[in-house]
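Hello again,

I reread your note about wanting to compare the complex against the isolated chains. To keep things tidy I'm splitting this into two emails, and this first one only covers the full assembly. Below are the input lines as submitted, including protein chains and any nucleic acid or small-molecule components. They are followed by the predicted structure of everything together. The single-chain runs will come separately.
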Amino acid sequence: MDDDRDACQIFHIDEEKVLKLKAGLIGEYKALTLSEIFKALGDPTRVKILYTLMENELCVCDIASLLGMTVSAISHQLRLLRNLKIVKYRKEGKMVYYSLDDEHIKKLLEMGVTHVEE
Amino acid sequence: MDDDRDACQIFHIDEEKVLKLKAGLIGEYKALTLSEIFKALGDPTRVKILYTLMENELCVCDIASLLGMTVSAISHQLRLLRNLKIVKYRKEGKMVYYSLDDEHIKKLLEMGVTHVEE
DNA sequence: CATACATTTGAACAAGTGTTCAACTATTTA
DNA sequence: TAAATAGTTGAACACTTGTTCAAATGTATG
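Full-complex prediction:
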């Protein structure tokens, strides 16, 4: 009688629970920002790119060669990853060397692998 | 002279490095599987749904009410999350209670927040 | 300066995605 | 059995996305 599961019709969960739930809601902006990061990792090409960068920094055409894709396609993806601060770059003459921006990205990838591998 | 950065033109990185890089490449299937998980987290609505499930299990129309969206929209998203084993569900009479499938998902979300908040 | 090369960029296209609407299933209750 | 309720589903739509191609930067080198 005390914990009869919330029927849905009029949404009559007890006040306290409603408040707790609403307080725990993620904000619109935060949800968007967070989803943008995950979305960036949510493409096979970008996953492959990031994997090549996990131990080394590499230039655009090295990545393109390794993945068997056009330099243009890789560059487009790198721009996206750059804008989201997922990779950083370093210019040296004609070449541009890309690397992961921070350790979080590496950890996110590793945790993703852990999840899919179990 | 020893570590002259790989010029790109003919991709003449030294053999050892090429081999190491190629060995570290992620496979096609693994990249796809991994990207599917991240893609699932890469939508604001799904992020919000998962956030409501971080501490409680909830039924579809509770989530819909909390987020101010239609039951149908939520149900479609939950199916996707279900198929990817990101959420699990429990049936009780007419109601279906959803919850996060495992701790990894929670950790991924938390780690994502950490990344965007710094 | 002219040439070569690494990378970036914009436009365009096919393919994929999220929401809505209406119809449907399944379960409870009268 | 009939009505009510919780949830699922499929089709349709506008919108977004990833790649390609061609053209444009920027930088070194002859």
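For quick reference: Residues 7-9, 43, 45, 69-70, 72-73, 76-77, 91, 93-95 of chain A lie near DNA strand D (CB under 10 Å from a C1').

B.
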